[in-house]
Design a protein that fits this description.
The chain has about 120 residues and is an alpha+beta fold. The chain has helices spanning about 5-15, 45-60, 90-100, 100-105; strands at about 20-25, 35-40, 70, 75-80, 85-90, 110. Strands 3-4-5-2-1-6 form a 6-stranded mixed β-sheet. The mean pLDDT is about 90. It is found in: Cytoplasm.
Length: about 120
């Protein structure tokens, strides 16, 4: 599956579960670890976990085997490593603290229509 298709699949899965402030960052010129980061916020620890679980379910159903996941238990921040795409789902305060958008400043950024 192409990176762009995987990004769209992740964004759609996040939108299905009412994720907030969905942002994608094209980081392929900044790191060799991944091509795109998808960042989204959840309204509670339970919502963050549900968002991450939905992304995992949708990508697996599409035949993509995630390389790993972190933080699903705590619910403040979930990281899903899908290879060419890494998905971060966080509580708003956690997202503000880590400020990944600023960290990767200069990467091509776009926001999903429902994230604004």
């Amino acid at each position: 599956m192409q990176s762009e298709q995987l990004v769209q699949l992740a964004v759609d899965a996040l939108e299905d579960m009412k994720a907030q402030d969905i942002t994608t960052l094209d980081v392929r010129d900044k790191t060799s670890v991944t091509d795109v980061m998808v960042i989204a916020s959840g309204t509670s620890s339970r919502h963050v976990k549900s968002l991450a679980d939905n992304v995992l379910e949708k990508v697996k159903r599409s035949g993509v085997q995630p390389l790993g996941s972190e933080g699903l238990e705590a619910g403040e921040w979930a990281l899903l490593d899908l290879g060419d795409v890494v998905v971060h789902v966080m509580l708003p305060a956690t997202r503000e603290f880590y400020d990944l958008e600023r960290l990767w400043r200069g990467a091509e950024q776009s926001r999903a229509a429902h994230g604004e």
